[in-house]
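Hey everyone, long-time lurker, first post.

I ran two proteins through the pipeline my lab uses and got sequence/structure pairs for each. Pasting them in order. The first:
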Amino acid sequence: MSFKILTLNNIAVAGLRRLPRDLYEVASEIGHPDGILVRSANMHAMDIPDSVKAIARAGAGVNNIPVDALTHRGIPVFNAPGANANAVKELVIAGMMLGARNICWAWDYVRELDGDDSAVSKAVEAGKKRYVGFELPGRTLGVVGLGAIGVEVANAAHGLGMKVVGYDPQLTVERAWQLSSGVEQAASLDDLFSRADIITLHVPLVDATRNLVNAERVGLMQAGGIVLNFARGGIVDEEAVLAAVDSGHLSAYVCDFPTNLTRNHPRVTALPHLGASTGEAEENCAIMAAENLREFLENGNIRRSVNFPESFLPRTPGQRLTIANLNVPNMVGQISTELAEAGLNIVDLLNKSRGDVAYTIVDVEGKASAATVEKISAIDGVLNVRAI
């Protein structure tokens, strides 16, 4: 058994090393790939070969991948949640300090000074009052989204002496255990915005989060507040935020997604998408993506997928069948019937669902024939079948 992996970007060597050379052929140009490793390449217009069984992104966001189309083909999409969390957390804390202490605008002021050292010194003393900022302890940080990054940001801010309020209606038990007990829960987004001096965003860009930060919510914030966006550009209504900055209601906007509207604004610090741009984060993301892909291709287990349910079943002797299907009644019954008619005894079975799709892992004694696999594939609602 061997697999072909297509890489669409430069993937950190530390990740590629997780794919043993005796089992994997990895290249940026390869025919009939079993899997794809990607970072930022836009796959929406790509003709994804029928041979592809899974796609793994070496990062958290999957906006560059046609997830819905792949789901309908029964292809899981993996990401690397939390692998870049520390890198983003550090940049968010840095962005908070840049905004609170007016550092970028003060730096620009100094760089534009003229004259000898004496003149510069006088100008510094005369001008520094323009850049008076505020300290973080006692201020309230509102964290929207308490996934891997949001939790780390919340805990770090709490450690700096800030009051921290979080909001995430989909907070998992795992993340709740990781969250500092000092972080308060907001009843709603409006509640969070009304209590916050600083807002930081850690949610994906989907229809429900587009323009989540808008004029109404910004208006609820404390005067002189700061908005931080190190998540995705479309989550913030830039015109509304800039209007609040221009009016003085907000003191700053710090983001990782420059546009022509923001990049030259005097009270905006716009960075070139540096959130996960550390060597450590790139390696961590590549390792997690490669491990996700390998576990699926070799064992059919699904971990850290954005479109299929978490599904892990320890291997047993014999053959493993994996079936991706629509989440409809009697699917497991029909699969079991086909296996029984083929004289195959089921050793172990796992069935999980997520929204409109489901995933079944079946370990059988013996080996299913090509005809049996074809019969299971022909069941109405089955998206694809693999025999491992």
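...and the second, right after it:
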Amino acid sequence: MSQIKAAITTVASHLPEYVLTNKELETMVDTTDEWITTRTGIKERRILKGEGKGVTEMAKVAVEKLLEKRGIGPEEIDLVIFCSVTPDKIFPASANIVSAKVGMSNAFGYDLNAACSGFIYGLVTGSKFIESGSHKKVIVIGADKMSAIIDYTDRQTCIIFGDGAGAVLLEPNEEGMGIQDSILRSDGNGEQYLHQVAGGSEYPPTEDTVAKRQHYVHQEGKTVFKFAVSNMADVSYEIMERNNLTPDDVAWLVPHQANLRIIDATANRMGVGKDKVMINIDKYGNTTNGTIPLCVSDWEAKLHKGDNIILSAFGGGFTWGSVYLKWAYDSEG
């Protein structure tokens, strides 16, 4: 009997309508379009507007598109893994909330928080349920409403982040397609450089934490950039080396969209040309857990069965990792 692997069989995404351009940011903070573009590669990002609209608002639409594309009902889903740093609530899990909104009544679910690496952590976690034979249909969602935790008076962070959601369906595959290998890493010593001080059990919300603006993302950009460049590039090269892949063997690199210079450094370390790198940071900015599934969704029509694809990410915590997969189908698009 062939070994069961977990393959992506469908991908879908959803983005808010509102576009926040660099030109608009020029009216909000001390920055310029040239400064932002030169340092990050970002031209615009999407923002979810409206009172009472959380991250599951976007995830719901992405999952509904996913189910429609695959031609299956919500009751057929066994498990939902929701990767996010901006859940609707501390509890219940956003996985449970979106399951109720979509009607995935037979699925159990939970949230996974590994910052910007969350989606690939979730992908690997979901694959184990498939490989064990215990589950047949697992949805992994990568979604964030970063605008909810961004200080729009801080030009170091407000220029980077946007909102968006993507989702993939994992199913068993016995043809050798799907997830082949993964390397996941973390180092808690990176906490001080990229974190949100208040809102958890260490510093619950008070008038003081709000006044000190401690419920927003804090990032020491230069330090994070240095660690991201080295770790994301190294782990991507390592997974190629471990699987005897040459640059010619790699069809696509799908990097976390944090900064164009980090993406370039990763591609250079791997020896992969820009024509094989998925980049949409210019349109969406850094959507944290949403970046990789949004890229895959945008490029789905160009993917072919058997393509060797490397996913790579780096996030706060620090967390980082890489996934090697073989694409499982030819897109009808």
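Reply from user beta_strand_b:
Welcome! Quick read of the second one: The mean pLDDT is 97. The longest helix spans residues 221-242.
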